[in-house]
């Protein structure tokens, strides 16, 4: 019924508002990300894991790709966030995660069944300085632009590879 729909929308907005107020006070909602421990619902730097995060960022800044970093971590027995081994995706995910510059982003993930993974960026609620950063803003931004460049290059490389495989057909 319409009344129930109205109520549940109002309720979900109240829940959202409550979460936003918590986040503004620096309270973390959910499981702590790798590099942090959850202490009284606040994120506290886990120095051992934070050093791995710093290593991942510095290797990437040193032009090592996700695959190389991942192999290095596995070969040197760094404990992964979950499972037995580091994966390239978890490394790349960490390099993209702005939690490491002290930000909390709320409403980034789209609801299940919406047909998309993320909400549009203008719907994200970004709250800065909610916890101690592990990575400097400058390093984080440099990594983001390097990742953008790499993506472009990979796209171009794929196109030129495809074209060269077509070359024998020419003429």
Short recap of the structure:
The chain is 51% helix and 8% strand.
Q: What is the element string, with H for helices and E for strands?
A: HEEHHHEEH
- How much helix is in the residues? 40-55%
Q: What is the residue-mean pLDDT, rounded to a whole number?
A: 86
The helix tally amounts to 5
Q: Note the beta-strand portion.
A: 5-15%
Rg (C-alpha, Å): 20 Å
Structural class by helix and strand composition: mainly alpha
List the uncertain runs.
none
Distance between the termini: 68 Å
Main attributes?
171 residues; mainly alpha; two-stranded antiparallel ribbon; two-stranded antiparallel sheet; 8% strand
How would you describe this structure to a colleague?
Strand 1 and strand 2 form a beta hairpin. The protein has five helices and four strands; from the N terminus they run H-E-E-H-H-H-E-E-H. The strands form two sheets. Strands 1-2 form a two-stranded antiparallel ribbon. Strands 3-4 form a two-stranded antiparallel sheet. 51% of the residues lie in helices and 8% in strands. The N and C termini lie far apart (68 Å). The mean pLDDT is 86. The chain has 171 residues and is mainly α.
């Amino acid at each position: 019924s319409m009344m129930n729909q109205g109520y549940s929308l109002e309720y979900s907005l109240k829940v959202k508002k409550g979460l936003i107020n918590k986040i503004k006070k620096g309270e973390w909602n959910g499981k702590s990300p790798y590099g942090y421990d959850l202490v009284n619902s606040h994120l506290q730097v886990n120095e051992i894991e934070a050093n791995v995060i710093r290593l991942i960022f510095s290797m990437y800044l040193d032009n090592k790709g996700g695959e190389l970093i991942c192999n290095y971590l596995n070969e040197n027995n760094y404990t992964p966030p979950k499972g037995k081994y580091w994966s390239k995706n978890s490394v790349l995910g960490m390099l993209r995660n702005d939690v490491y510059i002290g930000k909390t982003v709320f409403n980034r993930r789209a609801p299940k069944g919406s047909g998309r993974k993320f909400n549009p960026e203008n719907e994200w609620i970004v709250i800065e300085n909610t916890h101690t950063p592990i990575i400097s803003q400058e390093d984080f931004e440099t990594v983001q632009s390097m990742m953008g460049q790499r993506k472009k290059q990979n796209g171009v490389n794929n196109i030129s590879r495809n074209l060269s495989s077509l070359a024998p057909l020419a003429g």
